[in-house]
Design a protein that fits this description.
heterodimer; A: Rossmann fold; B: alpha+beta; 4-stranded mixed β-sheet
Chain lengths: ~260, ~375
């Protein structure tokens, strides 16, 4: 089975601070990590390869230093890695990003399965995976929490929906976005890390992909961020006192008064 | 921690071992200790991470490191759980005799499996009546055609019952004393080879310690390690190389206790201030840190000397083991004291560290025996200069 795992380098959220004056994220000196959800996508691909064989390519779009997360993917066991990297991609929103990644996946040739984390921890849109499927014309399933074994060109998965779980059978090729509960990612191996250090990554530019200049980077991104702000902190919290029974009664009365229940 | 200018690869090994220890070992250390449970899952993770192969040459499937690489892994695992570290290290203790004295065929047959962690090894020297006095071994190996027939009982064998390969020291010629013992590779499942009672221990309780029982156990002749009569040499050369590992275990335990004590002293408030602001606590912590760093420096220096090809290192190897284990004992006792009532409670990790530390003064040659080795070497060295 030919698999592609999309990975993204993101700032370590646990280290990010918000500038109290401007409300902007302060990214200086913040270490970069692999988007945590993507580790689960890699683990899913590794387990599928263990079960049915095949090849895994890790794919990332980003600046040259995004190479680090691709090497990490190789250390974990993926077969090869491609970095899509060009100044022309700067300022891409999810539409331009998914367009660009789709071109790279097409360039890789026949692919059966594309795996993505459910979302990135910096952008948090959860759009790139589904958009990728649309560009590629693949079947798709988001928020995958359990995975079957592929057979006869199809794959059964379980996804989390708003009000329960859905069991879905997809015809391959397909794009999946996976949740953390899907699996527990492994640690890299020493031999994998040595291999990762020496591995040659493929680096593809906009020209290599034959990208339409009007669909990539800033030009290809209809999204405009009008402003970023932290919500005002209100001090409306009220403490209910008394016994548990009294507190619950008071809460129910309030909620009924507000027509919440 | 002082910068020891490790190579990039050594740093990689240390960092991965640390990650495994923090993410996978620390969360279950308490449970493994209380249930006295063998850490199968963690050994599987160590295997997956290639940690079993750090000291094994590349031609046998390892990473081509040496004693220092092994020391780095043991230290990191010990910071989280010394029982887990013992289990890991005991496999190298069983594997080193094969690397040092095995024939090409034996090395090819066994080392790749040990490197990959597919099989665990163990080393069997101690008996009920032969502890420090290793010369009084009773287990017999009698040659019968293409086999040696083993009879006897080994005691206190780490990884007993769990390991797949055992290097067993047995008497082949009772007339010759310490020159009449030989080393054999015995595979689990060999008829006549069984396991006795599991020890109930004070510490390192995740590590399994068990009797090995040989009753007319027929071991193929090709499983003799080295030549007949070399058993004592096999044991001594092996232990010379693995003692820095016990030192590393002690350093890891002591570092873990220091980490816990500093963290606690910064958080715990009495008389309206964190207790780390009291000089009584500060000086304790400083003394602990001094000892830990000195122990680490000695362990690393000896490991590096061995890896660089030093010819004689029994004395220094013994020094590293004695010094570091005495440090681990003192530092863990102090850590319990700093944590006070909480230190004595099983809610906090330091009481376990104190129990775990004790064994490092006892096993792989008691500290008293190590001091004998050191003193004998001194007497020999000075006799030469006169």
């Amino acid at each position: 089975m030919e698999m592609v795992v999309c990975v993204k380098q993101v700032p370590d959220a646990s280290e990010v601070r918000v500038d109290p004056a401007t409300n902007n994220l302060m990214r200086e000196g913040v270490p970069s990590i692999m988007n945590p959800f993507d580790r689960h996508a890699i683990e899913a691909a590794l387990r599928l390869r263990e079960a049915v064989g095949g090849r895994i390519t890790a794919l990332s779009m980003g600046p040259p230093q995004a190479e680090e997360v691709l090497r990490e993917a190789i250390a974990l066991g993926v077969d090869e890695a491609v970095l899509v990297c060009d100044r022309a991609f700067a300022g891409s929103d999810t539409l331009a990003t998914s367009y660009t990644l789709a071109l790279a996946i097409r360039k890789l040739g026949a692919v059966d399965l594309v795996l993505c984390g459910q979302q990135s921890i910096d952008g948090e849109t959860a759009q790139v995976g589904p958009e990728l499927a649309e560009h590629l014309g693949f079947a798709q399933c988001s928020y995958v929490r359990a995975l079957g074994k592929p057979a006869e060109g199809a794959l059964e998965v379980e996804r989390a929906a708003e009000d329960g779980y859905e069991r879905v059978r997809l015809l391959l090729p397909a794009v999946l976005t996976v949740m953390k509960e899907l699996n527990e990612p492994r640690l890299p191996s020493l031999k994998g890390m040595l291999r990762a250090k020496k591995a040659e990554l493929r680096i593809w530019t906009a020209a290599d992909l034959g990208a339409d200049p009007s669909r990539i980077g800033q030009a290809g991104s209809p999204t405009r961020v009008a402003g970023v702000f932290a919500p005002q902190r209100g001090k409306k919290a009220q403490l209910l006192t008394g016994s548990v029974v009294e507190q619950v009664q008071a809460l129910v009365e309030r909620l009924q008064a507000e027509r919440v229940i | 921690m002082l910068n020891y200018f490790l190579t990039e690869e050594q740093e990689m090994i240390r960092d991965l071992a640390r990650r495994l220890a923090e993410e996978k070992v620390a969360p279950v250390a308490r449970e493994l200790d209380e249930k006295e449970e063998f850490p199968h899952e963690i050994m599987r993770l160590c295997a997956e991470a290639d940690l079993f192969g750090v000291w094994i040459p590349e031609e046998y499937g390892g990473l081509g490191g040496g004693v220092l690489e092994q020391v780095l892994v043991v230290e990191e695992l010990s910071r989280a759980c010394a029982g887990v570290a013992t289990t890991y290290a005991a496999s190298a203790l069983g594997g080193y005799p094969i690397l040092l004295f095995g024939s090409e065929e034996q090395k090819k047959r066994y080392l790749p499996d040990l490197a990959a962690g597919r099989r665990l090894a163990a080393f069997a020297l101690t008996e009920a009546g032969a502890g420090s006095d290793a010369g009084s071994i009773r287990t017999r190996a009698v040659r019968e055609g293409d086999y040696y027939v083993l009879n006897g009982t080994k005691q206190w064998i780490t990884n007993g019952g769990e390991a797949d390969l055992y290097v067993v020291i047995a008497v082949t010629d009772p007339e010759k004393g310490s020159r009449g013992v030989s080393a054999f590779i015995v595979e689990k499942g060999t008829p006549g080879f069984s396991f006795g009672a599991k020890e109930k221990k004070m510490g390192i309780r995740a590590s399994t310690t068990r009797e090995l029982i040989f009753a007319d156990c027929r071991v193929p002749r090709e499983n003799l390690l080295g030549k007949e009569g070399m058993g004592f040499l096999v044991a001594m050369r092996t232990l010379d190389r693995t003692r820095p590992g016990v030192g590393a275990q002690a350093v890891g335990i002591a570092q873990g206790a220091l980490d816990a004590a500093v963290r606690y002293a910064r958080e715990r408030r009495q008389f309206d201030q964190p207790i780390i602001s009291f000089q009584a606590i500060q000086h304790k912590l400083a003394d602990m840190a001094i000892q830990v760093e000195a122990a680490r420096a000695l362990v690393y220096a000896v490991a590096r000397a061995i890896d660089a090809g030093a010819k004689e290192f029994s004395k220094e190897s013994a020094m590293a083991k004695v010094f570091a284990s005495d440090v681990a004992m003192r530092v863990t006792v102090e850590a319990v004291q700093i944590l006070g009532g909480n230190g004595y409670s099983r809610e906090y990790p330091v009481e376990k560290m104190m129990r775990d530390a004790k064994v490092t003064q006892i096993y792989e040659g008691t500290n008293e025996i190590q001091r004998n080795i050191i003193a004998q070497a001194l007497a020999k060295e000075y006799a030469k200069t006169e």
